[in-house]
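Help wanted!
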Amino acid sequence: MTAATDSLPPGFLADLAEYVAIPSDSRSAPMATMRAAAEWLAARLDWAGGRVEETDGFPVVRADWLGAPGAPTVLVYGHYDVQPTGDLTEWHTAPFELVVDGDVLRGRGVTDDKGPVLLVLEMARTMLAERGALPLNVRFLLEGEEEIGSPHLPAYVRAHAAELAADLVISADGAMWRPTEPSISIASKGLVALDVVVTGAAEDLHSGRYGGTVANPVHALATVLASLHTADGAVAVAGFTDGVDKLPPQRRAEIDAVDFDDEEYRAAVGAPELFGEAGYSTLARLWERPTLEVNGITAGGKYTVIPHRAVGHVSCRLVGRQDPDRVVEAISAHVAALDLPGVRVEVRADPGRVPAYRIEPDHPAVRAAREALAEVYPGQEVLLAVIAGTLPATTLFESALGAKTLFFSFATADEKHHAPNEFLRIARIGEGMRAWAALWDRLATGGTR
Amino acid sequence: MTAATDSLPPGFLADLAEYVAIPSDSRSAPMATMRAAAEWLAARLDWAGGRVEETDGFPVVRADWLGAPGAPTVLVYGHYDVQPTGDLTEWHTAPFELVVDGDVLRGRGVTDDKGPVLLVLEMARTMLAERGALPLNVRFLLEGEEEIGSPHLPAYVRAHAAELAADLVISADGAMWRPTEPSISIASKGLVALDVVVTGAAEDLHSGRYGGTVANPVHALATVLASLHTADGAVAVAGFTDGVDKLPPQRRAEIDAVDFDDEEYRAAVGAPELFGEAGYSTLARLWERPTLEVNGITAGGKYTVIPHRAVGHVSCRLVGRQDPDRVVEAISAHVAALDLPGVRVEVRADPGRVPAYRIEPDHPAVRAAREALAEVYPGQEVLLAVIAGTLPATTLFESALGAKTLFFSFATADEKHHAPNEFLRIARIGEGMRAWAALWDRLATGGTR
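Answered by r_m:
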């Protein structure tokens, strides 16, 4: 009988166990713990001058192997921080102890992003040892604040743009869409968030002693929020979809060709039925359409008052060329046009705004990635998927370094990222190492732009 | 120079100071404190056999003076418990220390309801001492749980209905509408509360990874809540106003004759403008029209999820013959008829339901009260006002004792009931004693039914 771990390179499990044991939760860990994780990682990059560099927050790990003159340069991106454990009683194993459990490894960060980064380091070290050289120039940028929104990464990248110069960024962060086939994410959605703030009287008023005399901000907010969508689920804000192209028939056909079972998906999320914009399949809505979701409402409570304030928390996921500023303007104009009596209505947009990101399906890096995956997963179709979430680093790298980002992670989206009992499929580690090697070889000869 | 307190009977201030010093906050005080307040009050009723009687909660104070055979019997209702102090830093004086401050007395409970009750006891004791008899039979029922919704009063009153039998209840609780003229409240609104509960998926979903595929319960709730009113502020639920009579021209004229300044009211509540059902003046809406207010919403927050649950907290103030059960049914039917896709919508009504209460303006007790007030406030019009809040004891006394309740309180609605810096106008104490005496004399001769 062969154990799943037999496929791993000698020492890999012990290394990953050491790395997982460092509780580098960027929400709660002290600087010393974060630095320990960074230094651990930098030591694994000694062959490329691995080092810890300061930022205004937790440090970054940098390394450069530039021994392939004339060949392209890639920048490998990933992160060493992890999510909080959450409720420890929900964990079946100790979160910071790497556990082999049949075909999977368990532990906080094992799939997001410690395993997927470590496999690249192991592959590169082995390749260099075996061949005496890598096929292209490689830089590494591994940050410690991804799980808290990378607050200090933009300033760091802009300040060090020349040193980080690369033809292509390859992200070891991200995830394959699902376990059943290999996939490459060619897009991620943008994000803009805002509050709709409705105010009425100066204070909360007794609903009996004042009821019927003043407008209730909660009613006004409900009217605003109910007006944001049509009955069939489309966003009803004029101008919201500016910059969203009609779904090309070819892309629609590609999506329709994906083996996707609505009923299975519905059962998994536990909703009474699926719902969304008419005229699009579930997967087309998820991957290709912008959304506007009310994430919550803060208003009064279960006591008999007319609250003086009601706030709707809204966020929009953007696609195509939607301009986040323009989206805020469109929503503001829509709300103002309602002209609701008896209240003040204000739209307050959050400063952080991220446009959608996309790498063309025929980009040389995507072609190389598909070929690499086809080599590792023979006979399986490589899906072109979308990360319906938002990855701000992609647009940062595009604007600061002028480089596209290729997502090439061997995590899988179902591996309980951010949740208790996070895991990583052991087979993906060997597959990932072979695929990264095949990718680099192809990029070295086929180009990166 | 005459101090405002010169008008008070000897010993009254000292008594009230003792009474206010007992911190009988029914939300937080231990049984011993509540019992101390009850016993203090019972001792002031020794001339009528004052005693403390057990209930399933805090005790009630009972007393009976039945030395007027053939004359009517009235039941005086009030309470000895007070509201919590709230934030002590907002108090300008110590809450449980009676302070004379110019024309007012300050302290927790001084106007709600310790002062207004004590003045009746003082008046009755004095009258009995002076005349040797009261003009009618008087029972007292003073409870200790009014500020927490009188949870044990209904069972107590029903179990002791025979002993509490009276021709009329006179409530020393309540308040005159405003300080500028005497008024009698002839009605209070009913109350029914319910939650609109919308559920979608089994758990909160990442708004990126699932956005566009499932209905958002917050959107559905907004649609439900926005549908409950017309654009002009009327309740849009079919059947809601069943049992609400058209406002009689005479009552409309009475209300229109009240000196009421919309702009002054607007400025006091701090709303940008007043708003409500078209076709009614502000005061007519406040006093005569039913309301449906969304008191709050519990749903998600400011994080990028599609919440799996959204709850709207609704309460309705009822008038006329509106049946609380029927109101719940009407709202439930309205919500069900929306038939929103992708979510489950449920209406969960609270068990406590109170119909509206009204005593006819030409009821002998109201006539007697108007005459008594006219005697104490010569030359001033006595307004017939409405308590737009809800007083469940009124419907309890009507159903359990078959007796109407006359509100005859010498508190005023602006005296910071339930808030820091509660106060009572000193002049109202002497006025109240004279008015109660005049009322009893009139009821003794003019009848109570």
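OP: Thanks! One thing I noticed: The mean pLDDT of chain A is 95.
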